[in-house]
Amino acid sequence: MPISLPAYGLISFLPLVFSSQSFAQQVLSGRIHKKLSTEVLVAVSVHNLSQQKYNQSDMGGNFRIPAKKGDTIVFTSAGYLPDTTFVNTWMFAEAEGYNVYLTPNMVELPSVRVGEQSNYQLDSIKRREDYSWLDSVHHVKLAGGKTFSDGVGISFSPLVISIQKRYIEED
Fold first, then answer.
1. What residues in the chain have per-residue pLDDT under 50?
2. What is the 3-state secondary structure (H, E, C) of the chain?
3. Angle at 30 between CA 26 and CA 32, to 5 degrees
């Protein structure tokens, strides 16, 4: 028995109607939390890399973004490490939505000393205290006398020799 044209068209059209649900766009939703905390995160960027869709979490940490199985979703926020998720079908079936937990990005800066004395000055004071016993034992100055040639070392400058001669001749 031949099938009439309208019945044949209906039979070929029905699979497309029932399979269109698999091609339908779904929405992935949930809440974004700070890891190891009950705090929800506000204004977290939600980016579906596969479909080039963007959204942002609201004041309650809730997010919604068009997605389907196999899409790649990236959650980013200043001060937190980014989190990348590959969408699975179970994520759409969660009762309270898909929960995301972002880890804080801790950056430790070197310490800075604020005050009257720098580390160099503190080191000089400490060194003076450590060697204060030399003041009572050693009375001769190693440098800083009446002439520039007082101290330890040898001066080979022609200018120095002439000045030393004058100093000696004047005495």
1. 19-22, 162-167, 171
2. CCCCHHHHHHHHHHHHHHHHHHHCCEEEEEEEEECCCCCECCCCEEEECCCCEEEECCCCCEEEEEECCCCEEEEECCCECCEEEECCCHHHHCCCCEEEEECECCCCCCCCCCCCCCHHHHHHHHHHHHCCHHHHHCCCCCCCCCCCCCCCCCCCCHHHHHHHHHHHHHC
3. 140
| Single-letter code of the amino acid located at 93 | A
Sheet (strand 26-34) strand order = 62-67, 26-34, 98-102
Query: Which pLDDT score, from 0 to 100, does residue 78 have?
Result: 92
Instruction: Answer yes or no: are the C-beta atoms of 93 and 110 closer than 8 Å.
Output: no
- Nearest to residue 97, comparing CAs of 105, 87, 106? 87
For residue 109, what pLDDT is reported?
Answer: 86
Q: What is the pLDDT of residue 128?
A: 86
Structure-token match 């200018």, residue found: 159
* Contact (Cβ atoms closer than 8 angstroms) between residue 75 and residue 85: yes
